[in-house]
Design goal:
Length: about 250
């Protein structure tokens, strides 16, 4: 593969990128293109290596190639309360891109909240992989050397930028997948991730989902706390996915 400026992309990255990773990159790029096309903003995070977050944002904001779009991308500053900052700023339709190891708990917690916030999540990393389903798109390298991994991350998000712009050139791809059925059995039986905002009396809770805020019944689960992640079906919480209070987020 070559970059638009004909600088070769490959080498160590080519040796580390199997067919599965290439497919993951393509899917992530298409998802980002659709979100950008619909007006979404990208939030870039990399607590342990903040220069990566800045580099990703610059790649997408700065149209380095003539005719390419400048895309909205924002860096969450190093040292910020990651989950609290994203909770306050991310809106449905946005994207969160992380460059971090699987062991970075704040990143993991932010990624898990993507569905409740209505955000598409992309997690770039190397070494031990995060758990299945940790993000919408997990772009992982089988590399142990952190210096080598850091260099390959740069090549990976360059490719992510380039492939996103390739998708823009094919407008038919930018239409989101939608269900045309009047009543869809699959959709109607789907559980949704929600983040608890506040808890009222008699099993009532106000939660945030990808569709917005709504009140749900919580009598089927243990009493929730603000910040908990729950699984919602037919207006009721049917399982607790994660117990985390907003007070813990602030510490």
């Amino acid at each position: 593969m070559t970059r638009p400026d004909h600088a070769p992309v490959g080498g160590d990255f080519g040796a580390s990128a199997d067919a599965g990773l290439c497919e993951d990159l393509a899917r992530a790029s298409l998802a980002l293109a659709r979100r950008f096309s619909a007006g979404g903003t990208m939030w870039c995070i990399s607590p342990s290596s903040p220069f990566h977050a800045h580099h990703v944002a610059v790649e997408f904001v700065h149209p380095v190639i003539m005719g390419k779009r400048a895309l909205p991308a924002v860096v969450v500053p190093a040292g910020a309360d990651l989950v609290a900052t994203l909770r306050a700023t991310v809106r449905p339709g946005d994207m969160v891109v992380a460059i971090a190891g699987a062991g970075e708990s704040d990143v993991s917690r932010a990624m898990r909240r993507g569905p409740a916030w209505g955000a598409e999540t992309v997690w770039i990393g190397a070494g031990p992989r995060p758990a299945d389903g940790a993000a919408d798109h997990v772009l992982w390298l089988d590399v142990d050397d952190p210096l080598v991994a850091s260099e390959l991350f740069v090549r990976m998000y360059h490719l992510l930028w380039e492939l996103t712009h390739v998708c823009f050139e094919h407008t038919g791809l930018l239409r989101p997948d939608t269900c045309d059925e009047e009543v869809c059995i699959t959709c109607s039986d789907e559980g949704r991730t929600a983040e608890v905002i506040s808890v009222g009396g008699l099993g009532d809770a106000l939660v945030r989902t990808a569709e917005g805020r709504e009140h749900i019944d919580t009598t089927l689960i243990d009493p929730p706390c603000p910040g908990d992640l729950v699984l919602v079906h037919a207006g009721a919480a049917i399982a607790t996915l994660e117990k985390t209070s907003l007070e813990e987020d602030r510490r």
